[in-house]
Design goal:
The structure holds two protein chains of two kinds.
Chain A lengths: L2 H14 L13 H4 L4 H14 L3 H12 L14
Chain B lengths: L1 H14 L15 E5 L4 E15 L2 E5 L6 E5 L2 E7 L4 E6 L2 E5 L4 E6 L2 E3 L5 H17 L3 H21 L1
Parallel strand pairs in B: 1-8
Antiparallel strand pairs in B: 1-2, 2-3, 2-5, 4-7, 5-6, 6-9, 7-8
Helix pairs in contact in B: 2-3
Classes of the chains: A mainly alpha, B alpha+beta.
Amino acid sequence: MRPCDNIKVRQRHHARTRPALETISKMVAYWRQAGLSYIRFSAICASAVRAAMKPQFKSEALKAAEANVRVFKPKPAASA
Amino acid sequence: MMAARFLRRALPVLRQTRTYAEATSGAPQMSFTFASPTQVFFKEVSVKQVDVPTLTGAFGILPAHVPTLQVLRPGVVTVINDDGSSAKYFVSSGSVTVNGDSSVQLLAEEAVPLDQLDVSAAKANLEKAQSDLAGTSDEAARAEAQVCIEANEAIVKALE
């Protein structure tokens, strides 16, 4: 087996297991424990703030936030 | 002769004088930068104090604060300017960096002045998130609902 095959196996394994940031002595945040990253925590908090803005400011904020994300639906695979 | 050798050895110690710690000459200025992806609120401005809400607790940053890196939680950032006036902003999340030269960078994912938030919308979202939490049993979905609940609770608390 080539060395790169090992890396792929390790990466796959990591994607399925919980990120191991817990030790016995450290207190873990509940969202970290449930498998959420801080990036996801931050995104949820930001959308909560945007949802609670007054209407005249909300639309600009939503537009600005959407500008960073583009959603593509995968095209159906062409029949062979 | 013994006395001479004793004195020679003791002199360096005797020369040390002990005094109280010196007061810092000229208070270091705090250069404060506060921005979100869409807006810059403060750019290298000299301010007196900044209160920030972090995951490990809320604390106030003064000039000559110990260098630290923290991540933010939903909460209110209070900036106290040199002239005593203060401004409050609600931040959703982000990071705060205090450097050794007393410069502070506060980068928020979403930051708004308090008067741009609607308390009734926040309360309605809070109730919706609480019902979402009761509705799911998937751990990740429950955690996401809990995050939303805490964010909305922080908004409601900030606006009271």
